[in-house]
Known about the structure:
- With about 280 residues, this protein is an alpha/beta fold.
- The chain has 3 domains: about 5-80 and about 170-180, D-Maltodextrin-Binding Protein, domain 2 (3-Layer(aba) Sandwich), CATH 3.40.190.10; about 85-160, Periplasmic binding protein-like II (D-Maltodextrin-Binding Protein, domain 2); about 190-275, Alpha-Beta Plaits.
- Helix content is about 30%, strand content about 35%.
- The chain has 10 helices and 15 strands.
- The protein has helices at about 15-20, 35-40, 60-65, 105-110, 110-120, 130-135, 150-155, 205-215, 250-260, 275, and strands spanning about 5-10, 25-30, 50-55, 60, 75-80, 85-90, 100-105, 120-125, 145, 155-160, 170-180, 190-200, 220-230, 235-240, 260-270.
- The strands form 3 sheets. Strands 1, 2, 3, 4, 5 and 11 form a 6-stranded mixed beta sheet that branches. The chain has a 5-stranded mixed beta sheet with strand order 8-7-9-6-10.
- α8 (about 205-215) runs antiparallel to α9.
- The two termini are about 35 Å apart.
Amino acid sequence: xxxxxxxxxxxxxxxxxxxxxxxxxxxxxxxxxxxxxxxxxxxxxxxxxxxxxxxxxxxxxxxxxxxxxxxxxxxxxxxxxxxxxxxxxxxxxxxxxxxxxxxxxxxxxxxxxxxxxxxxxxxxxxxxxxxxxxxxxxxxxxxxxxxxxxxxxxxxxxxxxxxxxxxxxxxxxxxxxxxxxxxxxxxxxxxxxxxxxxxxxxxxxxxxxxxxxxxxxxxxxxxxxxxxxxxxxxxxxxxxxxxxxxxxxxxxxxxxxxxxxxxxxxxxxxxxxxxxxxx
Length: 279
């Protein structure tokens, strides 16, 4: 039997599509929330959790940055999933009958150009696939949903527009996470290392951390900050760098990082996705 992979959403969600593409022989495990999807991997009820981290059109997934510090999971892989919004209607309906459109708020925003031309009433759903499921199960004939082709197949809906989004360049980046940490190192491969850190509460600490990466020729490809705690004084940073901790220059940069930080937590070391080399 294939591996079990948890994801947030119902069957037909774009996260489900990502599971199918990355783990073709796996058993997808839909979960109502990100917390449940993560906890199933933490308790090893599933082998991996497929978790979206950012989208090229909508930016970072805020909930994930809140959950990562609390999680016991490690990032094992990254996966880039193309998001192709379709306009779906019930199999017994016609486009002339449609008066309303429903989907997740981000999907609605990403399809705003055609929605405005059609002049449909807009309904905000919890997610894309859930909106498609509702139309199918409740035989809603006057409402269209924005969702994936997978959702159309699962819920036997008609696709009336194959390319409904404003832009075709809509990509979601996922983390594939598990309880196990990647420990193998192949010098012939390219890696990304990711960390959560908090700097010492002294002037110039963040500057010195950044300087350690620069002087050791380590390229930082992502740095994001967020506050936590009731007084909003403590700031954590999420960063990704190119390189593996076993590489000498990366090792030196991380030693500098530890010197100027009150907290450093490695989230994962994983091979660069081949998608990056195609861009």
